[in-house]
Amino acid sequence: MQKGLLVVISGPSGAGKGTICKKLISSHPDIEISVSVTTRKPRETELEGVSYYFTSTEDFENRIKSNDFLEYASVYGNYYGTPKWKVLELVDQGKDVILEIDIQGALKVKEEYPEGVFIFILPPSLQELKKRITSRGTESKEDIIKRMECTYEELSYAFKYDYVVVNDYVEHAVEKIKSIIIAEKNKANRQISLINSIREA
Ligand code: 5GP
């Protein structure tokens, strides 16, 4: 069986990664999204096991010791990590899996799993980015400043990704990502067993 794609999506806070991923999975039921573990406090609208698995710092650090994570990082003062076994199992079963993670995490996944597809989401402008984070109303003033300060540095990492998608309109960004997934699935190096089976028939 052909393995699924591991699609890693990153970008500055407020670039719209979450909305894009939600739309992507609702229009593409075959794609699974990896639910991360975090020590951040849940926001009002977030559900355990859906948005994240929320846990304590002590439990998270125990999981690090047990090698439970494909990658983990400390982002804006909290731990976030991708459960390793679940993700690799799904990919082995032929499922496409999306990881919506920060840049440090994406670079670690690239080392561990270079055959992943790495997509960087760009906001149309920094002004628009600030407007989006502020209007979301989920972060404190200090958190907004912290997130905006990180953005400048984060943008320089876009070149490490395979693709850059500007999120001017969510629908356009989702269409572009769907096209990337289709193109990646049709790459010659993913078709080797198909080509061989046709040649041998
Ligand atoms: P938020 O607190 O807004 O949900 O997420 C903050 C940042 O953490 C976002 O950039 C998000 O992509 C990132 N993030 C979420 N889950 C993970 C994860 O499992 N690993 C890493 N490295 N970053 C994550």
Which short descriptors sum up this protein?
alpha/beta; 8 helices; five-stranded parallel sheet; 201 residues; Rossmann fold; binds guanosine-5'-monophosphate
What would a concise description of this structure say?
With 201 residues, the protein is of the alpha/beta class.
Give a short account of the largest sheet.
5 strands, parallel
User: Numbering strands along the chain, what is their spatial order in the largest sheet?
Assistant: 2-7-1-8-9
Elements, N to C (H/E) = EHEEEHEEHEHEHHEHH
Ligands: guanosine-5'-monophosphate
Assess the beta-strand content as a share of residues. 15-25%
The top level CATH class name of the domain at 6-34 and 95-200: Alpha Beta
Form type: globular
Total helical elements: 8
Task: Give the helix/strand class.
Answer: alpha/beta
Query: In the CATH classification, which architecture of the domain at 6-34 and 95-200 applies?
Result: 3-Layer(aba) Sandwich
Q: List low-confidence stretches.
A: none
Explain this structure:
- The structure is a single chain.
- The chain has helices spanning about 15-25, 55-65, 85-90, 105-110, 125-135, 140-155, 170-185, 190-200, and strands spanning about 5-10, 30-35, 35-40, 55, 70-75, 80-85, 95-100, 115-120, 165.
- By secondary structure, it is of the alpha/beta class.
- It has a domain at about 5-35 and about 95-200: P-loop containing nucleotide triphosphate hydrolases (Rossmann fold, 3-Layer(aba) Sandwich).
- It has a five-stranded parallel beta sheet with strand order 2-7-1-8-9, with helices on both faces. Strands 4-3-6-5 form a four-stranded mixed beta sheet.
- β5 and β6 form a beta hairpin.
- α1 (about 15-25) crosses α7.
- The longest helix has 16 residues, at about 170-185.
- The mean pLDDT is about 90.
- The structure holds guanosine-5'-monophosphate.
- Guanosine-5'-monophosphate binds near residues 17, 100, 101 and 102.
